[in-house]
Amino acid sequence: MALEKMEGKRDLWKRNWPSKVPFEVTYPYGEVPISTCLKIIAEKQPNKVATIFYGSEMTFKQWHEDSNRLANALLKMGYAKGDPILLYMHNCPQFFVVYLAVVKLGMIAFMADPSFKAYELNYFLADSGARVVCAFDNNYENLESHHKNGIV
User: Fold this and answer.
1) What is the 3-state secondary structure (H, E, C) of the chain?
2) What are the Cα distances from residue 84, in Å, to 50, 93, 127, 130?
């Protein structure tokens, strides 16, 4: 029954899909993790701009290298595949670098809206089981009590 409902929704989407936009996409590197795609692009086009954010550019090579540095730092801190991590960040290039590092390690990423207040964050941390949070310093106030309880 549930499968039939899903197929019906897919048909509805397809009927209303813009004619000039492909409904399905074949990825050029096959079915590989996004971190592998990034590595391939960084090797083939290292200086190609990946993002422009408020006038600041980041290349695919920078994304790859920065995410590797963070992944290695997380490994040295003792985090590994399967560990939950909370990303308490705004939508920016640094978010993607952090996400790539997490994917490279096989950690489980939970995203929390950076506008969450402390009580909302309490629920999110308890529910996810995350013992590490990646956030900008302007969100530290909401994390202070958690830091005292052993969350990095």
Assistant:
1) CHHHHHHHHHHHHHHCCCCCCCCCCCCCCCCCCHHHHHHHHHHHCCCCEEEEECCEEEEHHHHHHHHHHHHHHHHHCCCCCCCEEEEECCCCHHHHHHHHHHHHHCCEEEECCCCCCHHHHHHHHHHHCCCEEEECHHHHHHHHHHHHCCCC
2) 27, 21, 11, 5
Structure tokens at 99: 């996400």
The C-alpha atoms of residue 28 and residue 45 are separated, in whole angstroms, by 15
Q: Whole-number mean pLDDT of the chain?
A: 85
Residue-wise pLDDT for 87-102, tens only, equals 988 888 899 999 999 9
Tokens of 147: 């830091």
Q: What's this model's pTM, rounded to 2 decimal places?
A: 0.76
> Residue 107, exposed/middle/buried by CB under 10 A (0-12, 13-18, 19+)?
buried
CB count in 10 Å sphere of residue 68? 18
